[in-house]
Amino acid sequence: MRLSPRTHNPLISILTGATFISLSGIWVAWSNLDPTVSAFYRVFFGTIFLFTGCLWRKEIHRFDSKSTCLLFLCGLSFAADLVCWHASINYIGPGLSTVLGNFQVFILTFISIVVFGERLSIKFIISVPLAVLGLFLVIGLDWKTLPDNYLFGIGLALLTALFYSVFLLAMRQLQANQPQVSSIYNLMIVSFITSVLLIPTILFSGASFRIPTISSFGAVVCLALFSQTIGWVLIANSLPKVVPSIAGLLLLLQPALAFIWDVLIFDRSTTLLNWAGLAVVLMAIYLGMTSSRKIGSSE
Questions:
Q1: Are the CB atoms for 59 and 188 separated by under 8 Å?
Q2: Average pLDDT score, the chain
Q3: Rounded distance, CA 189 to CA 173, Å?
């Protein structure tokens, strides 16, 4: 989990982490599990991997009552985020669901402006209409021709962005409350809480915890290892060492690759207008990321 100063390059780490996370939608689709069940195994196995890393680092902490409440809020919002995002993949595919999940940058920046008094920047003013325009181009201008429940999938992906914004804000407050606790340890506790919260949801829905095939098991293990653990750790450890403008540009690799994987692996039908829309959305996300001092990545 900890690289030596000589071998650790933050730019390479962010690029590697973004690439790993871009594969999340593929692992979810290949798992062939109920969306909530795949979300559960993502955080359940992720907890095991992160706990192993924390033991290796000899990092075990106790939390005060305020931090415990924040941890529960993190777990609750992250559970809602994962359920919505995993479900949206069934309706709109892993590429578009990941792109829309990254709309959290607009929500976070808006909250920073309204709640924390951050100044409204020209970049943010430009980014919002650009994102809407790009989304229309990616989806298509004639919404009547869209498949059944496509708009429902878009709504789920946008809810993902909302819940992920709550998660990021709670995590930042948690880190500020106990700065001596690493983000890796916090993520391990949050992953555990999230997995516990997802259990009653699965039981209530009547879904099965059973993993039917070896390939399904391999997919959820890869999802937990590369997306929930390695990718997140690489990015979290490297973001503070890179200026926001460069970090924002590097993090665009994640939604861009997710869309490309969707086209290459799942034969997503894409026109030149759709590609132009993707470019516009990514530009908007970049402007949204760099309009604030804080940068976050999704899924």
A1: no
A2: 86
A3: 15
